[in-house]
Amino acid sequence: MKFELVIDSRTNEVVIALLKEGKLIELHKEKHNNNYSVGDIYLGKVKKIVPGLNASFVNVGHEKDGFLHYLDLGSQVNSFKKFSDKARDNKLNTASLKNFRKEKDTLKEGKIQDVLKSGDHILVQVSKEPISSKGPRLSTELSFAGRYMVLIPFSERVSISQKIQSREERTRLKKLIHSIKPKGFGVIIRTVAKNKKVAELDKDLKNLYKKWQSIYKKLKTTKISERIHGELNRSSAILRDILNSEFSKIHVNNIELYSELKEYLSRISPDQEKIVKFYKNKTPIFQKMGITQQVKSSFGKTATMKNGTYLVIEHTEALHVIDVNSGKKVDSNKNQEANALAVNIIAVDEVARQLRLRDMGGIIVVDFIDLHNSENRKIIYERMVEAMREDKAKHHILPLTKFGLMQITRQRVRPEMKIDTMEKCPMCSGNGKIDSSLLLIETIENKIKILTKTLDKEIKIATHPFVASHINKGLFFNSIRHSWIKKFKRKITITPDERLHLLQYSVIN
């Protein structure tokens, strides 16, 4: 099973596509210089205490104050406050917690006004990105995620991923980490640490400890509401979390990002550094890799599957609803129950893919085709559990009801991926009337006329494929492009770009 990562660096954002056997399973967008990503750490200031919610609002520089609930304080919040206050007042000489005197743990069922007060300065970590009109969700229980483990300050506990089931391996890892971890820090051992040698684990642990040392140094000069530690960029974070031997290629069209990923892989997995490929082709990378077409076919209200079956996906304020439809798939050699089971099995894999692709969170209700046999309903449930196993987001699945409904809850830490596949009429912009000034060919020709005065080299323009075909159509000497070449005495190239609307064009050079 092969995985590929395709990274399209654009003017304002980076779009990342994860492919499994050539099929799109994840799509991520990250703005350049993106703040308030999950894992980012800020020096915040408590603005308001709300006893009724047992929570506080913290200023971290976002237009909306961050939300910090009592349950997200962690038991060692007082130790974190003491450490940050002393570091800012230059009363600490080291980042080490070996001789640091910790404060008492807070109560699990306490009140936030007993711990925080308005005006307090605290270190907070983004646990959920700003969504819609809400500010970021915050936590004071800081953690640093690495390739093989997660480092947690002010803890001594070592825990191991439940997916590592071998008792001997769990014992080995626990003893190993206890022997190398710095005092005053807890560690969560990730699944990928299984069978790894001490040198690899120690290197990862030291890199994480350096992040804590960096925070200690920055605390002395950082101003309130400034970011004090940034998480990895989205592409590096994906590699950190899911990179394995099944990754075959990573394609990237930006030379700086290419160098950054090569350097990152050389640290976490030197053997796979060579899989990073720099894309030089003139055709847009998503178009060349067939991703643009997959995006357009996957993000509409209707998601088609094989054999004419399809899903209808609706979003409401409270939940998401997915309806399974058989379309034209009917096998005359099977009865109704067998046909329904066959369609539902096809739908299970697509539902799991859609949840991951759109990063849908909250409550999801899937309306499968009715199954009267309880054993068949059990098959669909078990199949869904298996299909969702690769999903990194926390989720919970309930068995099908007798009405054929399956309820799923899925954690959401980032805004849901929404791509509008419906476009307004390019001629009337949705108002039913055509603007007579929309003469695209003349507009492009006027643009070329202007460019001949400012550019000494070849003029390259990208347009919608239909327009490009029209300009380049016919024999070369009869085409519109050739008439422009003769008229302006300049080499002119018109290239198709699926990302552009019918009346859009872009000057490439």
List the helices and strands and how they pair.
Blueprint: E1 3-9, E2 13-20, E3 23-31, E4 41-50, E5 55-59, E6 66-69, H1 77-88, E7 121-128, E8 137-139, E9 144-145, E10 149-153, E11 158-160, H2 167-180, E12 185-189, H3 198-218, E13 227-229, H4 234-242, E14 247-252, H5 255-268, E15 276-278, H6 285-288, H7 291-298, E16 302-304, E17 310-315, E18 319-325, H8 336-358, E19 362-367, H9 374-387, E20 395-397, E21 405-410, H10 440-454, E22 459-463, H11 465-472, H12 480-488, E23 492-496, E24 505-507
Parallel strand pairs: 1-14, 11-12, 14-15, 18-19, 22-23
Antiparallel strand pairs: 1-2, 2-3, 4-5, 4-7, 4-13, 5-6, 7-8, 9-10, 10-12, 16-17, 17-18, 19-21, 20-21, 22-24
Textual characterization of the structure:
With 509 residues, the chain is of the alpha+beta class. The chain has 4 domains: 75 residues, Nucleotidyltransferase, domain 5; 189 residues, Nucleic acid-binding proteins (OB fold (Dihydrolipoamide Acetyltransferase, E2P)); 112 residues, Aminopeptidase; 68 residues, no CATH class. The protein has 12 helices and 24 strands. The strands form 5 sheets. Strands 4, 5, 6, 7, 8 and 13 form a 6-stranded antiparallel beta sheet that branches. A 6-stranded mixed beta sheet has the order 16-17-18-19-21-20, with helices on one face. Helix 4 runs parallel beside helix 5. The longest helix has 23 residues. About 1% of the residues have low confidence.
What is the straight-line distance between the termini? 39 Å
Specify the overall morphology: globular
CATH architecture of the largest domain: Beta Barrel
Low-confidence stretches: 434-438
CATH H level of the largest domain: which superfamily?
Nucleic acid-binding proteins
Topology, number of strands: 24
Number of domains: 4
Helix fraction bin? 25-40%
Q: Mean pLDDT, rounded to whole units?
A: 86
Radius of gyration: 27 Å
Biggest β-sheet: count, sense, barrel? 6 strands, antiparallel
The CATH topology annotation of the largest domain reads as: OB fold (Dihydrolipoamide Acetyltransferase, E2P)
Number of alpha- plus pi-helical segments: 12
What is the CATH class of the largest domain? Mainly Beta
Secondary-structure content class: alpha+beta
Percent of residues in beta strands:
15-25%
